[in-house]
Amino acid sequence: MGLRKFVDKIKPTFSEGGKLSFLHSTFEGFETFLYAPNTVTKRGAHIRDCNDIKRVMITVVVALIPAMLFGMYNLGRMAGFTGMWDAFLFGLVEMLPMIVVSYVVGLSIEFAFAQVRRHEINEGFLVTGLLIPLVMPIGVPLWVVALSTAFAVIIGKEVFGGTGMNVFNPALLARAFAFFGYTSSMSGETAWYAGGTVHKWLGLTPAGTGEVMTSGATPLAQLGDGAAAYTADWSNFQDAFFGFIPGSMGETSTLAILIGAVILLFTGVASWRTMISVFAGGLLMGLVFNLVGADPASLPADATPEAIARAEYMNVPAYWHLVVGGFAFGAVFMATDPVTSAQTNTGKWIYGLMVGMLAVLIRVINPAYPEGMMLSILFMNALAPLIDYFVVERNIARRKKLIKNVK
Amino acid sequence: MKLSKNFTNPLAANNPVIVQILGICSALAVTVQLKPALVMGLSVTFVCAFSNLVMSLLRNGVPSRIRIIVQLVVIATLVIVVDQFLRAFMFDVSKQLSVYVGLIITNCIVMGRVEAFALGNKPWASFVDGVSNGLGYTLILVIVAFFRELCGSGKLFGMEIIPQGAYEAGYMNNGLFLFPPMALIIIGCIIWIHRSFNKDLQEK
C-alpha cells in the first residue's frame, strides 16, 4: 500500500498548521476519492449508512454509462460508419473532448469555491459533469460547453451554497444556457452530426458516398414540423426506441436509458415514484391530445400549414412521446435528481406527473421549443418546494383533525 | 446628514437599485443597449431631482391628506416634459424606450425619494438627494447594459467592439443576454459583489 503510506506522509502538510493548509479541502477531496474515510462518530447515537454521497454519485455515473457508450456508437453510425468498432471509435474521439472540458471547468470552479469557503469538496459534480455533454448535441463548440458549465456551476449551484442547496438541476441549467444563448449551435439540422475531419486522421472511411453525413433534423423536430414526411410507423418507432436517430448525445437510445433506470431503481438511488409518474404524465398528456386533436383530414381546406402540423402532432400515438427526444433521459436522470425534485412521497407523484404533462404540452403546443423536457423539468424544479409545502401542510391539517376527533 | 455624504450615499452604500431593490422593472427592460439605458437613467435623474426640489418647496403648503395627488401631478408633469424632449431631440432612443419613459411616473425611486426625503428636508438638500439617487440608478443601468450589449450583440453604444475575425474563428454572441432574465442575473451578481464589500448589508 505505497499510496496509502504516501497519502499519510503528506497529510500533515495539508492539515491545520501545515505549510499548504489552505489547500486542505483539495487534499481531503483527493484522499476520500482514493480511500473510504475511516472517521468514526465519537459521541451520540448516529446511524451511518455505507452509502455515502460518493457511492450514490458513482452509481448514477455507472447508470449513465450505457447511454454514453451508445451515444458514442450512434455518433459514428450517424456519420456513416458501418463497422461497429469504427463507429464507436469515431464517436469516442468526437465526444471525449466535451466530457473532458465539462469536467475540467466544473471541477476547477468547485475546487476553487470549496477552497475559499473552507468547505469539503462535494461529489455532486461527478454526475453533472457527465450529464452536461450527454444532453448537448455534438455540434456545440467546446468553449460554449465550458461557458455553460461555468454558468451552471456558479449561478445554478454555488450562489445557493453548493451541492445539495441548488434550486435547479445544474446539468439542465447548462443546457438551457447554451440553448437560449447559442441557439444556432443547439438546434437545427446540422447540430446533431459530427462534421469534423476526425475520421481522416483516425484512418477511417465512412461507407456510402465517402463523405461524412452532416445534416438532417431530429424525429422530434420533424414531428413538430409536420411538413416533413416523417411517419410515426413501427420501423421508425423501433429506430427511436433503440436509438438510431439523431439527437443529443446521450438521449437517443431509450433502451440504454432504461438499462440505466434499472440500475438506479435496483440500487435504490433514484425514486421509482418520480420516474414512473413522469412517464405516466407524458403518456396521459399524449392521450389527452389524441382525444382532443382534430383529424388532419377534417380540417378546412384553407387551414394554415402550422394548423395542419399541430393537428398531425396531436394525433401522434401517445407512447411516441416517450421515446423521441430527451423525454426518457430527462425522466430517468434529470427529474429524479434528489436535490431539485420534490422530497415528500405524495409530492413526488405530483411533481413527476406535472413534469411529464408539461413536457408533452410544450412540445405539441409551442413549435418554438421542440424539446419540452428541459423547460418542464426546470419549471417544476422551481415549483417542487411549493408542492412539498402543501403536502406537508395537508398532512399537518389531517393529523390535527384526528386529535379533534379524539376529544 | 452632511451634504457630501447625502450625495455619495445613494451611489454605493444605499444604492436605490441594488440595496433598496427599487426600479428593477425598468432596469430589466431598457438595458439591452447602452444608449437607451443611459438616456433612461438621466431621465430618471432629471425627474427625481426636480420632483424632489418642487415638493420640498411645496412641503409646508401641501396638506398631508392630499400630498400623494400633488406629488403625482408634479412627477407626471416632469415626465411629460422629459418625454416630449426625447421625442423632439432623440426620436430613435425615444422609440426604443417606448412606454418606459412614461412609466417613470410609477418608478418607485422617484415617489420614494419624494415621500422619504423631500417632504422633510430643505430644497437644496432634496435636490442633491434626487440627483444622487438618479445617478445611483443610472450607474447600475449602465453597468448592466454594458455587459448585455457587449455579450449580447458584441457592441458598445452601437459600435462593433468584437472584431470580425473573432466571429470568423467561431465566436458567437450570447442570445441569452438579450433576454430580461440575464439582466436580473447580472443585477444579482452586482449585489453579490456589493454585499461582499459591505458586510453590514449581509443578511444573517
Overview of this protein structure:
- The complex is a heterodimer of chains A (407) and B (204).
- By secondary structure, chain A is an all-alpha fold.
- Chain A has helices spanning 2-14, 24-34, 53-78, 84-117, 124-134, 142-156, 170-181, 183-186, 198-202, 219-225, 234-242, 254-266, 272-292, 305-314, 320-323, 327-334, 345-365, 372-406.
- Chain A has 3 domains: 2-34, no CATH class; 54-216, no CATH class; 217-407, no CATH class.
- The longest helix of chain A has 35 residues, at 372-406.
- In chain A, 44% of the residues are buried.
- Chain B has one domain (34-193).
- Chain B has 10 helices and 2 strands, in the order H-H-H-H-H-H-H-H-E-E-H-H.
- Chain B has a two-stranded antiparallel sheet with strand order 1-2.
- In chain B, a hairpin with a 2-residue loop joins strand 1 (155-156) and strand 2.
- The chains are: A mainly alpha (407), B mainly alpha (204).
- The A-B interface holds A 141, 143-144, 147, 155, 159, 177, 180-185 and B 170, 172, 174-177, 179, 185, 188, 192.
Give unreliable regions of chain A as ranges: none
Query: What is the distance, rounded to the nearest whole angstrom, between the alpha carbons of the first and last residues of chain A?
Result: 67 Å
The number of E-state strands of chain B comes to: 2
The total tally of domains of chain B equals: 1
Q: Provide the β-strand percentage band of chain A.
A: under 5%
Oligomer status? heterodimer
Radius of gyration of chain B: 18 Å
Strand residue content of chain B? under 5%
Number of strands of chain A: 0
Radius of gyration of chain A, in angstroms, nearest whole number: 24 Å
- Give the CA-based shape of chain A: globular
Largest sheet of chain B: 2 strands, antiparallel
The secondary-structure element order of chain B is: HHHHHHHHEEHH
The biggest sheet of chain A amounts to: none
